[in-house]
Design brief:
Distance between the termini: 12 Å
CATH class of the largest domain: Alpha Beta
Number of domains: 2
Strand content: 25-35%
Number of strands: 11
Shape: globular
Number of helices: 10
Order of helices and strands: EEEHEHHHEEEHHHHHEEHEE
């Protein structure tokens, strides 16, 4: 079989934590980044070419510091081969540094692209282990690769990844502001230790969240989206969080949480109320002088996909 010369990889955005599921649960969304990898001639003088189009393209580096290429290189280091000379074309649809897993799309895109060009020498289970190592936690990279809503937990032999059923009438509504919040900044505000009571609170609410997502039970979801491990600290970094939450709830949301590390805010509601919730969230932010866009999305069930083009 001849070597693949070009492959296009599409990776969904993700929303992680979902309230009490800090660093362990995430869901893939119907919003995407695309990455095209083209094998270059081995004897070419230019070993790397990166072009970027789409949302905030000018802010993405096009040299060896690019995260897509760093993941690409990590793959070849892992299989103990020299990285292939490559042209990478990136088309961005996922806003950067907004809590929607843009870095996870880059990592998964780079690893999948490298794996296909290398002849798919790693299984997806091995790819996701490598992705978690690069990212540092599983909540974004796991659903970005596999799609759906996923819970990841460590075992004695590695990672166990569990598919979480998501009721079709539970609709994610995201309000994305025009300011950023880095993951490192959001982590710095978290306490080093939490009380036993807070740990028990989150364990109970995560269990309830899983059942609420599966059934669409409104009462369960309203209670389940509460959290004591990260949101009480991070919401202080997001202006008018409480006002936007109140507006979303008044419009029919089950609850509102921070998407990933923020500042994007995620409300869960039903199909009938999704437009009203979206309007309420963005209007409340704009009333406070913050420009925001709203996205009413669905859960991406497929995850990362690749199409060989040559």
């Amino acid at each position: 079989m001849s070597a693949v010369s070009s492959v296009c990889v599409t990776v969904p955005a993700t929303t992680a934590n979902l309230g009490p599921g800090f660093d362990c649960i995430g869901a893939a969304l119907t919003l995407y980044n695309e990455f095209k990898f083209t094998r270059e001639e081995v004897n070419t003088s230019q070993k790397l070419i990166i072009t970027v189009t789409g949302t905030e393209a000018a802010r993405v580096t096009t040299d060896e510091t690019n995260l897509v290429y760093q993941a690409f290189v990590k793959f070849f280091e892992h299989i103990e081969q020299k990285p292939l000379p490559v042209k990478i074309e990136i088309n961005l649809g996922v806003p950067l540094a907004r809590g929607l897993g843009s870095s996870a799309t880059a990592i998964i895109g780079g690893l999948i692209g490298a794996n296909v060009l290398a002849g798919e020498v790693l299984t997806l289970d091995k790819v996701v282990e490598l992705a978690i190592t690069i990212e540092g936690h599983p909540d974004n990279v796991v659903p970005a690769l596999f799609g759906g809503c996923r819970l990841a937990a460590t075992s004695d032999t590695g990672w166990e990844i569990c598919d979480i059923p998501w009721c079709k009438d539970v609709v994610p509504v995201l309000a994305i502001p025009d300011f950023e919040l880095s993951t490192s900044e959001a982590r710095q505000v978290l306490p080093a230790q939490v009380s036993r009571g807070d740990a028990i609170f989150n364990a109970a609410h995560l269990g309830l969240l899983l059942r609420g997502l599966e059934t669409g039970n409104q009462n369960w979801l309203q209670a389940a989206l509460q959290d004591k491990l990260h949101q009480p600290y991070r919401k202080k970094l997001i202006n008018n969080y409480d006002l936007i939450s109140a507006a979303a709830l008044s419009a029919g949301a089950y609850g509102m949480v921070i998407s990933g590390a923020g500042p994007t805010l995620l409300a869960l509601t039903n199909t009938a109320n999704s437009q009203a919730v979206a309007t309420a969230m963005v209007s409340e932010w704009e009333n406070k002088g913050v420009k925001a866009q709203v996205q009413t999305l669905q859960i991406d069930r497929e995850g990362a996909r690749s199409v060989v083009q040559g």
